[in-house]
Description:
Layout: H1 4-12, H2 17-24, H3 28-36, H4 44-54, H5 63-85, H6 91-108
GO molecular function: DNA binding
Protein name: Helix-turn-helix
InterPro entries: Cro/C1-type_HTH (IPR001387), Lambda_DNA-bd_dom_sf (IPR010982)
Amino acid sequence: MGLEIIEEYKKKLGLTTAELAERSGVPKGTLDKILSGVTKDPKLETLKAIARVLGLSLDDFDDTIEDSTNIINSYKDLLTVYTRSKNNLSQAEKMKLAQIILSDDEEEG
Length: 109
């Protein structure tokens, strides 16, 4: 299920978009964009605020949100590992890491 769950639960609870905005602290304009599909990938903090008001968890939203969170966590893990080990890496090893990262970016673009 995707972000349409917001509209579904908003109706179940008898909330208007303005009421959801007020209770969640998310600007009404932002909610309008999410509900209309203009914003397809809202910020995690925005979704948390909406979910709290609707009695939902982030797991109730689209799988792509979980994927985004995993990417963020993976990136943080990578930074942690690199930061802890950078003094033990040779210049050649650092260059190899840079090449790997850049080659992945070029393939996607």
